[in-house]
Design brief:
508 residues; alpha/beta; TIM Barrel; 2 domains; eight-stranded parallel beta barrel; four-stranded parallel beta sheet; 27% helix; 18% strand
Length: 508
């Protein structure tokens, strides 16, 4: 039952305001019009990702409203009531709070902490108190133990009368239907709402989300939906998107919805691969033509890439004694620049000889700080203190790979870069020791690139053997050797005969 207590004039009551980054306070009703709206930090990021819909609705309200003259409540499991409540919340410019439905804790079971992490009707009552609400409207079977009177929400009338923060938030929701309360609260607060594509859980893999966060850089952000519990570093996710770099078919996650073909080799060295047969501009054009030969094959778009050997294993020790020739950044930069202009990633390949992968990777930090530059480690050329290239096949420990991946992941986070691919070349199990223990980072997509050459039966046997006991979640790459394979697979054969279909197909 709703009370019929007379309402005070609208303009004296409406004080909704964005809260991100600060705690709200309750103002005396007589002084409500003088309440200062909270101005959130431009880079503020909040996540409302509780599995419990009541808690999640409170989290969204806390993220977006410093104060509100009222609120609308509905049972979480009553879709019709939620729909009606959502319309009322938008009209009144107030939050929509959902109360527990059957199967959720009873009213008053727990009260929320500062993070809004409790469940039960008591959470809604506490949020009404925090908001300084003078009323709440109930839709459906709602019962809240609160001193705030229940009655119909008044019409807000002139939207200009509603206090808003100067930079309305961007609210990313996982699903418009299941997250309808979050959408209603966001729109009531004047926020911009963007919805994740169906089946996509990582914002970095959602082109519209990345574009929106880039366009609205400087606005606070809220991720609303249980899906986002998996976000390990929401702040980095937002900063990476705001940088604006996207892959050719949208998004920033290297292997989610993307497949690549790459030219492999070293600048000016045709003997090491087809990449070295032409200058950077012509290399990019050739890479585009290669990718075009895969058009219409498979269920994902195929885009071009380059894999450039940055350090080349050598037959003599050289001045530093490590049997590796480190190409200067100035030699590699033209390839990175030409690829970036074409929207194309570049993979820097390391052949360290008697050096180690991390030391060599750090030589190219300036390039790896660019959004389109990824990294590859080639253990065949990671030699022991008494080994020489082409006499022995090298190997690397999982610990050394982890040191590289930890450093690279930290570089990505520190500079707000989009996720990078970390490629591990392998054609023997012994080349990566303790491979199953490799650490994976959300900032990196790990790919095992199978480099076997020769007859197709031998290559397929290597491919299958390396898939056994592989780390969960890794992606896979395949190499076509133009001169050494007997025969080399055509694009149609590569897509049909190599199972699972590789995410990266290189040509040497």
């Amino acid at each position: 039952m709703r009370s019929g207590r007379p309402l005070r004039p609208l303009l004296a009551l409406v004080v909704s305001g964005l809260l991100l980054g600060a705690a709200g306070c309750t103002a005396d009703a007589a002084d409500r019009t003088a309440t200062e709206l909270t101005r959130p930090a431009a880079d503020a990021v909040r996540v409302a990702a509780s599995d419990d819909p009541t808690t999640r609705s409170v989290q969204v309200s806390r993220a977006l409203f410093a104060h509100a003259w009222g609120a609308v409540a509905a049972p979480a499991g009553d879709e019709r009531a939620v729909t009606t409540a959502a319309s009322a919340a938008r009209r009144a410019h107030v939050p929509l709070l959902v109360t527990p439905s059957a199967g959720h804790p009873a009213a008053g079971e727990r009260t929320p902490g500062d993070d809004g992490s409790s469940r039960g009707d008591a959470a809604v009552a506490a949020e009404l108190e925090r908001l300084g609400a003078d009323w709440y409207q109930a839709e459906g079977d709602v019962s809240v133990d609160t001193d705030v009177p229940e009655r119909d929400a008044p019409e807000a009338g002139d939207a200009a009368a509603v206090g808003r923060a100067s930079r309305p938030a961007t609210v990313v929701v996982a699903d418009r239907r299941s997250d309808a309360p979050a959408v209603a609260t966001a729109e009531a607060a004047g926020a911009h709402v963007v919805v994740m594509p169906a089946g996509v859980t990582d914002p970095a893999a959602a082109p519209d989300v990345v574009s929106t966060l880039h366009e609205r850089a400087g606005h606070p952000t809220v991720f609303a939906g249980a899906t986002f519990r998996a976000l390990s570093d929401p702040g980095w996710t937002v900063r990476a998107a705001q940088g604006g770099w996207q892959l050719p078919h949208g998004g920033q996650r290297p292997f989610d919805g993307h497949r690549w073909t790459a030219l492999y080799g070293a600048p000016g060295a045709p003997v090491l691969g087809v990449l070295g047969e032409q200058d950077p501009t012509a290399t990019v054009q050739r890479a585009e033509q290669l990718a075009a030969s895969y058009d219409g094959l498979g269920d994902e778009p195929v885009s071009p890439a380059l894999e450039v050997i940055a350090t080349v294993a050598a037959g003599d020790p050289g001045a530093d004694g490590d049997y590796s020739r480190e190409l200067p950044v100035s030699t590699l930069q033209p390839y990175v620049d030409a690829a970036r202009r074409a929207g194309m990633p570049v993979v820097l390949d390391l052949q360290p000889g008697r050096s180690d992968f991390l030391s060599q990777a750090k030589r190219y930090e300036s390039l790896l700080r660019e959004p389109n530059v990824w990294l590859a480690l080639d253990p065949e050329w990671r030699l022991g203190p008494d080994q020489v290239p082409l006499r022995q096949i090298g190997s690397v420990s999982a610990d050394e790979v982890d040191r590289v991946s930890s450093w690279l992941a930290a570089l990505v986070r520190q500079h707000g870069l989009p996720p990078k691919a970390l490629v591990l070349h392998q054609f023997r199990l012994s080349m990566i020791q303790d491979r199953a223990s490799l650490t994976q980072h959300p900032e990196l997509d790990l790919l095992v690139h199978v480099d076997g050459q020769g007859s197709q039966p031998d290559k397929q046997a290597t491919w299958k053997a390396l898939h056994q006991d592989a780390p969960a979640g890794v992606h896979w790459g395949w190499k076509n050797f133009i001169d050494e394979d007997t025969p080399m697979l055509t694009p149609e054969q590569t897509m049909a005969d190599v199972t699972p279909t590789p995410s990266l197909i290189t040509y040497q």
